[in-house]
Amino acid sequence: MSNTGATALPQLAIFGINMGGDGDPRAMIRVASAAEAAGYESVWTGEHIVLPDPQAPPSPAPPETPMVDTAVALSYLAGATSTIKLGSGIIILPQRQPAVLAKSLASLDHVSGGRLLFGLGVGYLEPEMTACSTPMERRGERADEYLAAMRKLWTEDAASFDGEFVRFSDVTANPKPVQADLHTVVGGHSGRAARRAVESAHGWYGFMRDLETTRADIARLEEAAQQYQRPESFGRLEISITPAKRLAPGDLEAYAELGVDRLILQPGWHRGEDKILAYIEQYAPDA
Length: 287
Fold this sequence. Notes:
Number of helices: 9
Helix content: 25-40%
Oligomer: single chain
């Protein structure tokens, strides 16, 4: 799919590289390698550490769904690919111990040669939060503080941090990420997520959004940009979307007109490897 218009088309990516049938190690490599060969910009994991059993709303998947741990899956794929970027879509940050996660992600960026895209969110499944010994209350504040503390460990030696949820003094974690400023993407559709993206991340990620909801999301982000200060080092806010349905003719151009930079397509983790590979070929950026 080549761009012949004046507006640059979104980069294309694939979601669910660690889920369902893609949770099989050999399938994971075949799908990621096919995406890389076809010119996709990145592959993204999905994440839930545990799922409610039996499934009940708002749980997104049956409890038997395999979901390989994000850092394990992306590290595994780092060794089997060479250029495609590796995205976490998304790590539920309040559930994680921040110093341990900072080490894991820095190591992943290190072994992949700087290809990590760190997608993060605050979570919404109460049974999962409880299983991870994480209160639902104030999970947003916890996530904000965790990210700030992790950046200290990624960028400083003899680092110190004195927050409400995280405290450390004069500690160093190496290796540092290859990226001087590890690329971060905030997921979520709330006003608080918009503020978090503007103030603390390179990009924002909306999941299962059509053109109308994407338009509303971007308006919310633009409003947040007027209200909250954005560090110059982050540059322009990057917009990533997983569409709510398969792309139709004209959708790429329509998302581009809205200002979307990346479409993280969902082939369907439950559809089987052959159909996922066919999907990758059908929408290949180099086709």
